[in-house]
Specification:
2 copies of one chain form a homodimer.
Chain A (H helix, E strand, L loop, with lengths): L1 H12 L4 H9 L10 H13 L3 E6 L7 E6 L1 H12 L10 H7 L6 H36 L2 H38 L1
Helix pairs in contact in A: 1-4, 2-3, 6-7
Chain A binds a DNA duplex (30 and 30 nucleotides) through helix 3.
Chain lengths: ~180, ~180
DNA sequence: GTATAATATATGACCAGTCATATAATACCA
DNA sequence: TGGTATTATATGACTGGTCATATATTATAC
């Protein structure tokens, strides 16, 4: 399960609270692995039970106590085991394709509208991706580990390439449908 | 929810049992929307409750009775409503990228092995996709609705393009890591 | 003769993830 | 003065999906 291991991965950088972890997810892997706050806290409990992390309660007066989680040796071992383990190749679920599959029920203009909406979402996504490097720049400087930064950048590259491929498909498909219309 | 509506979509082609539906899923949309048998039966129950489908029990002597489900007018309306409704653009979860994100913990050869395993899975997927047109040929003939066949083909085209894009990313990334190794 | 596949429906247990909400203090803005 | 944001943890209810298994008959393969 990815959430568990992503948490181990973050705690391997530095000890953190559930709250910190939520922010870490939201500013890094959220585009390919969003994490729900409730799920993070419940997973931390489970990871503690398994001995992969330990808790250190840091009392605070002005705000709620912090529960700082530390990766244990067993946890670090599990992280590396998971990283090396083969992942089974599952095709990702694509809700849009379910609509496309049954789009024969729609008129041509309606099918085009469906694809235009999808394409608009993809373009917005690409714009968001384009803003990431600047946002990440100060991070990369702070971390000062070019090796880590290299792998982080790979995930963005993947996102851009796949989104572009999907957009090209959508645009060509729209053109295709419009051509069929003209011919008839 | 896609499963519900996919079932409505199939029942719009023809009345069917849960068993038939399972086969329909497995021979068409399984690459982007796999359906569990238990989930199909439970969803049919729910769709009946909502009045989108009706059941007709067809007694059989030699094997279990068939419960043939029929799409109602309300169900057909719901199918078209769903097809026309905008789908919110969510980035798909990509478990591999979680590993890549934390791959700084691995040695270069290990990171390459991770990507090689992924690439192998993608190549197998492309080979499977390449076999689909022949498999679907007799279907397309039987259906005799070129419009339906056109939309079905679009979903395959999407799969091929996205898988190729992912494979290119993986292959270029592998080369990239190997180049870095040589330089050092 | 024995095992497995196909036809057909169904339930129980479980899992990961989502959404809403609770608590409680401080800070800041209008 | 009221409303929202930030810090911080936690629970309850729910949803969609997975896995294993039960039942019962016929057909086919080894």
């Amino acid at each position: 399960m990815s959430l568990e291991h992503a948490i181990l991965g973050f705690l391997n950088y530095a000890p953190m609270t559930g709250y910190d972890l939520k922010k870490a997810f939201d500013t890094s892997v959220r585009h390919f692995w969003p994490a729900d706050q409730a799920q993070i806290y419940r997973t931390l409990k489970e990871l503690t039970r398994r001995g992969w992390v330990t808790v250190e309660v840091v009392p605070q007066e002005d705000r709620p106590n912090r529960k700082v989680y530390h990766l244990t040796d067993a946890g670090r071992e599990e992280l590396r085991r998971w990283l090396r383990a083969p992942s089974d190749p599952e095709d990702p679920r694509v809700p849009l394709l379910v609509k496309v599959f049954f789009a024969g029920q729609l008129a041509d203009e309606e099918a085009v509208a469906l694809l235009e909406g999808y394409a608009a979402g993809l373009r917005a996504r690409l714009e968001e991706y384009a803003r990431i490097p600047q946002q990440a720049a100060h991070y990369a400087e702070a971390v000062r580990s070019p090796r880590e930064v290299f792998f982080w950048a790979l995930t963005l590259d993947y996102g851009v390439r796949l989104t572009r491929a999907a957009l090209e498909w959508a645009e060509e498909t729209i053109r295709h449908i419009r051509n069929l219309e003209e011919e008839s």
